[in-house]
Specification:
single chain, 847 residues, alpha+beta, 6-stranded mixed beta barrel, globular
Amino acid sequence: MLRTAIKTVLAHKVRLMLTAVAIVLGVGLVAGTFMFTDTINGQFDTLLDDIYAGTDVSVRSEAGEFSAATEPFPESVYDDVLAVEGVKYAEPGVGSVSLQVLDGNGDLIKTTGAPTLGFSWGEFPSLNPMRVKDGNGRAPEGPGEMVIDANTATNAELSVGETITVVSLEGPEEYELVGIVSFGDSDSLLGAILVAFELEEAQRLFGYEDELTGILVQADDGVDAEALVVGIGNVLPEGVEAVTGETEQGEQSSEISEALGFVSIGLLAFAGVSVFVGAFIIQNTFRIIIAQRTRELALLRAIGATGRQVRWMVIVEALIVGLVGSILGIAFGAVMSGAITALMNAAGTGIPTGSMVLLPRTIIVGLTVGLVLTLLSALLPARKASRIPPVAAMREDAARAPRRSLQIRGIAGAIITGLGVALLLIGLFASVGSALAFVGAGAAIAFIGVSTLAPLAARPLADVIGWPLPRLFGVSGKLAKENTKRKPRRTASTASALMVGVALVVFFTVFASSTKASIEESIFDLFPADLTFQASNQTDPNVPAVMSPAFSEELRGLDEFETVSAMQFGLAVVDGDEELVGAVDPATIEEVVAVTMIEGSVSDLETRNTIVLSEAFIETLGRSIGDTIAVEYASMGEVDTVIVGTFEEATLGNVIQGTDTYMENFRYVGDSIVFANTADGVTIDEAMEVTGPTVQSYGNVKAQTKSDIVTEAEAQIDGALVFFTAMLLFAVLIAVLGITNTLTLSVYERTKEIGLLRAVGMGRRQVRRMIRWEAVIVATFGALMGAAVGIVLGWATVQALADQGLGSFRIPFDQVLLALVLAAVAGVLAAIWPARKAARMNVLEAI
């Protein structure tokens, strides 16, 4: 039977080709994602090996619940470390993430999301990760000098000798660019802007007078790093620790892997959608082929083959197709990996390039995905093939399966859909540990349930969709409509693949539109301030970027403003949960922000070490007004804090405290957002004009009205929507290939029928038109189902996130209609090959 299976695949290779393409695309995305992350991780591991080659010990603040990268300790620790026996070199240093850099024209140098990192320049080459290559200037030697990474210099068109403005928490200052540096052998570190200054200048600029944030140590020859860690640890004060260079290198590698992990998870999610869609295509293809080979398989049964042998023959055929598709998919994954890297570098990410890394795990996963996908998709058709009786070989109409009732299918579909919806609701509304897993599983099962129910709607919807065709195109239109109704299971199965892609596109469209509506509503209701000022280079997804406090002080000195109130944000551990803490000026915040207090008053925050919590968060903690809870800060440790009130708005976060409390517990802070109301008689345009020079001098500040904030947020959401839609096009492409495959097989199945139509006078153009409109009906049917499912999923998600500030549900009917039109166009494109094949059929041979 193995030989028979191989010969069968070769005999039907054209029919199975598009099935293999679906496997190639799905496996290609999976393999490409793994290759991309493995290649980047390998390159950064090599880079970190070079950087930490001379570092045996690293001295830093103890991390605790927070990153220790920028937490300072006394500079005197350096002398104690240097005096430890076994220390060859010790390099003191400081670092900062609170910088912004302006180019020679005073414009902010932006990134695609990576931070701006400031360092002190190291004097010992073996301990300094940055290098000045020949011809790129020199290292900074004193005040007023700086260096910048080569990737940023290239993107911003900077050159040695140019004057650059650096904005710190002290305000803007000008520096001469004396050198362009590389980070190890790489010109960039994941697209971050890297700047360095002479040590004393860096301490002054970063606000670390007489303090350090780290010391790198190189051991004497023959001294063990672990032993040196113990020796150095004995002289360190409380709150400062020593770790091996290997340990710190591992932490850096983990942080990079984690940063890339978000990209990997996202790409794998889209790959999963493509694989899921491919399953519909594979199952449908094998089911049709089995139906068309009924007499052939019955003949095998008649000459002695058992049902089990027939079943295994079909499974082997599927595995052969799956193996070929998986191998090609892995090869396609290498192309995908290179394309992802190129796209990210085109956006300025600065990912180092190098040889592609293909790990055995990628090959195993790729082959497993392709083979398991094909095997599972072929199980039901194989079972059906094994039940073909030998007597079918003697029947002329053996390929014509009798019509079966859809009642059992309807019951099964309802049960499956109900299970999927239940899991979806648990993930969206219930407090479960793996909500995302419930949502993903629920959505997948719901899609299967809807596709199971789809044949019940195939005939009536085909009637509705195809209603105008007989009137517009005569016999061709009528036949197209009747052909799609003739086999509702096939129509529904073909349309289900497109349904998944369209459903997800519509879901993201509905979710994006609802988010924009909610943002517009909350901005105008929550922020009555005339003007808002924010940092324009947002780099950390967890904490808003900061501006120098000197900026808000300058605004307060302008007569055009009646009220200027600043907010700060930072991370703290509140009663065991890490939360973003917001700080407000109790005296002015209610003039610029509509805070709806449920209990207590904003003025209560004037008392030190007090906080107010959102209504939802205090219920989660199980706390009450007047309770004392522990709030842990990176610099100050745990501080007993009293809950003095609750508020309603989830948009403001869960925790708010007074600015004085915030300044005491967060060591180096800037303003995250500044609100301002104009004075009587001063228009917003006049205020914008007056603040223009101040905004320009700081470079990283943008002034916005409420409408500007809404417009910017909508643009960001639209950008994300374009990305999601582009990634889902792979799934849509697979679905379109499925329509092509089904129609091609249908043309083969109807060879005699089409030949008779041609014999009685139907022209080639009419045949092509009939096939095209069949494709349009199937595609529109799938798109309608997908749009309905996508809208329902969007509504459920918006309802689930209502407590997070997503209060408005909006359906963008124009975009949904566009999706339906594009689906119909996709149907036309899918029908080009099968329609051409049908029209070119030799009439006599067909009959």
